[in-house]
Amino acid sequence: MAPRLQLEKAAWQWAETVKPEDITHEHIELAYRIAVLACKRGTCRRNCRGNPNCLVGIGEQSWLGEIDENAFHNIDDPNSERRDKNTFVGLTNLGATCYVNTFLQVWFHNLELRRALYRFQNSRAEGHNTDSDYEPRTICEHLQYLFALLQNSNRRYIDPSGLVKALGLDTGQQQDAQEFSKLFLSLLEDTLSKQKDPNLQNVIQQQFCGQFSYVTVCNKCGRESPLPSRFYELELNIQGHKNLTECVTEFLKEEKLDGDNRYYCESCQSKQNATRRIKLQSLPRTLNFQLMRFVFDRQSGHKKKLNTFISFPEVLDMRPFLEGQEKCTYELSAVLIHRGVSAYSGHYIAHVRDAHTNDWYKFNDEEIEKMEGKKLQLGIEEDIAETAKSQTRKPKCSKGYHCSRNAYMLVYKQVIFSPFIIQYFLSFLQKLVDQDNKKFEEWCNEMADMRKQSVDKGKAKHEEVKELYELLPAEDGQSYEFVPLEWLKKWLDDSTAIKEIDNSQFFCSHGKLHPDNIAEVKRISSKAADLLFGRYGGISRLGQSSLCRDCVTQRCRVIRLKNQLNEDYREVMNLVKAPLKSDESGFWIGKASLRSWRQLALDQLEEDEEETKHNSSKVNGERSSSSGSKERDGEEMKNFNEDILCYHGGLSIIENDRRVVSAEVWNKLRMYFPKAPEFPQNHESCQQCMRLEREGKENEALNRMMANEQKSSLLNLFQEKNRPTLQKWPQDTDVLYIVPHYFVDEWRKFIRRPAKGNPVSSVGNSILLCPHGGFMFTYDSMLQGDSDCLCLSMHSIALLWPAEWEVISRMFLVDQVISICRIHDKTQDNGIVQYQTHPDLCRECREGFIFQQQRDMREYAQATVYVRKVIDKKRMIKESAPEFSVSGSDVEDEREEPKIDGENDPDFSQSEGGAKRQKLNETGSFSVAPVTAASKSGIRRSTRHRKLRGEKALIVSANQTLKELKIQIMHAFSVAPFDQNLSIDGRCLTDDSATLGSLGVIPESIICLKADEPIADYAAMDDVYQGKCCLRLLKFSKRSVPFSIIYFCTFFFLSFF
């Protein structure tokens, strides 16, 4: 079939030779493409939207071929959720709980632990009524029920969400797997220790708990000081090692204590050189090795993963590492794997050996895979892609050994201990499992019934569609109707709900089918239409009488005008160039309209055509914009000749925007713009506009006269010359007047451009007063400029001479007189003067204003603070070199000498006990000392913060804690939180849990950062980061770490984590 554009062109080709009044029914059918041949199956790859008779490629392929039952439903086979024979049960991953699933599978395969949990006294489960669902409450109840399901459930995998919720774990965030293991075993031990059965009380200790001692030997007297301690797993450093034996040896190696780290010997009663090492005294039945793959990187401030290959044996002999043991052999029982190169993401799986058959299984959440043979096969877990810098070749492993760069935990079982082969399973647990299996079987039957119903429904739909589709094509001479193409597609798509047939969206303004919508509908036989409307319902049927003659006639007229447009354009442009005859009367036309009339005509024709559509009429005569349209008064011209219309609808008084054309030209244009405004040459301009123009010129002359008079009377105020200041009070007057600086700014704008703005008529001094009518600012505040904080519309105040105030009082309306007076105290000889304002200062509002300012400074949501890194306690890093250049008025500020440690800063000196703050006397006046030479300059110092080198800006909030600020500083300066010493105004910030608002950190504060020297022992700091300082540092760490570092790390762990 021909492309859509070719079909469109062929449907209207007749319009070029047929006048609108000569259109026949044959022309209408050509426009609606009634006679276009229908496509045959196999000839079109997709449906021909331009052909209303094409019924191919609308979704009929799946109904006309062979029946596929799977296409009639989206329900998986419920038997795929059933547990296979002689396999284990998986666990559902709830988002980021794969690490939990791996440990649960490892603990489930510990037969002694499983047997003990089955014996856990659970009165709720024993007395449970099987008519309702069983819901465990405690951790042990959840684990007991979970293990029972893992053993005897018929499901392929089960949901551990009950246990995860009871533990309070975040399913969307991956936790530290090693910490989870220790905390869970500790919680389980605490719960089981409260049982009456002694076998239950000690099961965790028997299975996982071993004992070692930190032994310190004095080099002088040889005295040994053992400190016994228990462990549930041995944490081995893998950095720099190749196999498990080296890691254990490094864990037990001897450490020398000398220098500042000498040992205090109680026998010698002094500090002596000594040696310290760990002695293994007893090992548990299940020996867990934590390979410390996740370490702290000081450079980045985050954890990273060590992808170091470590080899480990299938059979481990621990006799060389024990004191006085003859035989201690362990067999590898489980390997826990972390897939991924990052410490913060990845996936956890477990390889576990079945204690009954010695077969190895890989547990990957819901998926469980049995390894071939009887040997461990790590498989693709070691093929995870690494970065180019860390790629290493896998070393060769000897027989009986395995090698891994992703294993993070190894589980060994003692060989001499025989596990329980006979399964121990209480009857009440079996009842709970049977209840769950019954629910599962009911679900399987329900899914099977739903599958069968969907298949039966699909088969019935198949026969219906096949029958109706054969009736759809309309033969020549048969009656026909139109139905929406999208509805036919949805009818043939069984996955969507079928709605009633609705043709209303395809109507034109005459209530019939618009020719442009023929691509959205299909022509079908009336017999098929009756069946479809009868079964599915519908409104607005479109039959043979729905072909719209009016729309076809309008489209024909538009096509003919478009074809004639280019010829008319050339003719009009030539006629415009010819001069108008003296006796000929012309018409006014806008110059912009004349330049763009061809584009406007195209827009007009398209709009006339759009108006015939039912839902496409534009609002308020709006038309589509075009590149050729010009603008008038900043708005796009949309209608022809509107550029000579005034706002009152008359002829514009601006003669430069219009010209006169002949009647012949105007008649040509009227063919395309019948509704355009018409103005004969003798038509008068708008009288209202002419009157307003005269009045505007008169007002402009008055404003200029007023501006000249005010400027001459207040010339110094306009030019900012000879202005009074409070820093240097004028000697020839004791009174100065105050007005808002906003008034002065607006008045100067009017003086500069009197014709462009309105004159200033009043002075609004009430903005400087409180609701009680009192003045809001003290002498000090006006001197220092805190009136800037009053409101957004008031930036400062302006001082006036008495003579200037007389002029202003005469020329402007003043709502309130505000002045400041200088009063000499004649009873004193020390030269002290007082200053008093009228109206007087309102103490209550002033204090409330200051309180609100201070409150706003401590209750902020997004504010900037500056962190400066210092190299010692007194000097900043290159403090004298700003990081940016200044311009304009800031150049003068930059020439000023910088203040050192608050020198010459009044706020700093007052807070430190220097010059006392100026106080108000009993009468509300101000007492000040004589003006010194330092204060005579009157130079306004800039309050804008200048960023220095070694300083960075951070966005903070008042409710943010100091701990969170340290994390921001770590990212900005690459200084770890425990290496940061922060201070502000000489005060050290140490409470990590306190908020910045409570610590006195306000917007624009400068926080000094002093970084400690890095500690050489990275492994020790890694322990601190991972929360192991209590175990490794406080319990006589074998590493040489000063006590001050141990104390600081302990404090950091308790406060920061």
Question: What descriptors fit this protein?
Answer:
single chain; alpha+beta; eight-stranded mixed β-sheet; 40 strands; flat
**Separation of termini?**
72 Å
Multimeric state: single chain
Overall pLDDT metric:
78
Number of helical runs? 31
Structural class: alpha+beta
Share of residues in helices? 25-40%
Strand content: 15-25%
> What is Rg?
46 Å
Region (Disordered): 605-635, 882-922
Domain Ubiquitin-like: 956-1007
EC number: 3.4.19.12
Keywords: Cytoplasm, Hydrolase, Nucleus, Protease, Repeat, Thiol protease, Ubl conjugation pathway
What layout of secondary structure does this protein have?
Blueprint: H1 4-11, H2 25-31, H3 61-64, E1 90-91, H4 98-108, H5 111-118, H6 123-126, H7 139-152, E2 157-158, H8 161-167, H9 177-192, H10 198-201, H11 203-208, E3 210-218, E4 224-231, E5 234-236, H12 244-252, E6 255-257, E7 263-265, E8 270-272, E9 274-282, E10 286-291, E11 294-297, E12 302-305, E13 310-313, E14 315-317, E15 329-339, E16 347-353, E17 360-364, E18 367-370, E19 401-404, E20 407-414, H13 427-471, E21 480-484, H14 485-492, E22 501-502, E23 521-525, H15 526-536, E24 538-539, H16 549-577, E25 587-590, H17 591-595, H18 597-610, E26 631-632, E27 635-636, E28 658-661, H19 663-672, H20 687-713, H21 715-719, E29 735-740, H22 741-752, E30 762-763, H23 779-784, E31 797-800, H24 802-811, E32 813-814, E33 819-824, E34 833-838, H25 843-858, E35 863-870, H26 890-894, H27 906-911, E36 926-928, E37 951-956, H28 962-973, E38 980-984, E39 987-989, E40 1006-1011, H29 1018-1025, H30 1029-1032, H31 1043-1056
Helix pairs in contact: 7-8, 7-13, 16-18, 16-19
